[in-house]
Design brief:
The chain has 138 residues and is an alpha/beta fold. The protein is built from 4 helices and 5 strands; from the N terminus they run ααβββαβαβ. The protein has a 5-stranded mixed beta sheet.
């Protein structure tokens, strides 16, 4: 009986783990985590990742010229405010790297560009295809 309980508990825990992992992946719905895009882009540009401000906010990538926020396309509006705040706090220009993973994400880029043009925010885009495989990393 004791062995049955142990086996049953192990199976239940494995199923629960699998369900939680599947739910996490389904909720995320992205080709890669934001950090993967940030790592590659920021290192190629010689920036400092996760630069910590006095109020403990973190600039995704701080370069000589720009304070840059990375966001997936649907979070375009958040990226505007964050990049402007980071720029004000660092004395750098505001920048956004918008991550476009689907063709329909172009609508968010169009929205971002309206405000970027008005407030002087530099915009770059990255797509899933822009990410290098682990074998290509320096």
């Amino acid at each position: 009986m004791k062995r049955f309980v142990v086996v049953w508990m192990a199976m239940w825990m494995a199923m629960a783990c699998a369900m939680m992992c599947a739910a996490t992946i389904a909720l995320a719905g992205h080709d890669a985590p934001e950090k993967a895009y940030q790592d590659q882009w920021c290192s190629e540009c010689g920036g400092v990742m996760e630069f910590v401000l006095p109020d403990k906010a973190r600039v995704d990538c701080l370069t000589q010229e720009y304070a840059i926020e990375f966001d997936f396309a649907s979070k375009w509006a958040e990226s505007v405010g964050q990049s402007l705040y980071y720029a004000a706090m660092t004395g750098r220009l505001p920048g956004v790297v918008l991550i476009l993973e689907r063709p329909e994400d172009a609508r968010y880029l169009n929205r971002l560009n309206v405000l970027a043009n008005r407030y002087g925010i530099r915009v770059w885009i990255m797509r899933g295809a822009d990410l290098r495989t682990g074998a290509d990393h320096p």
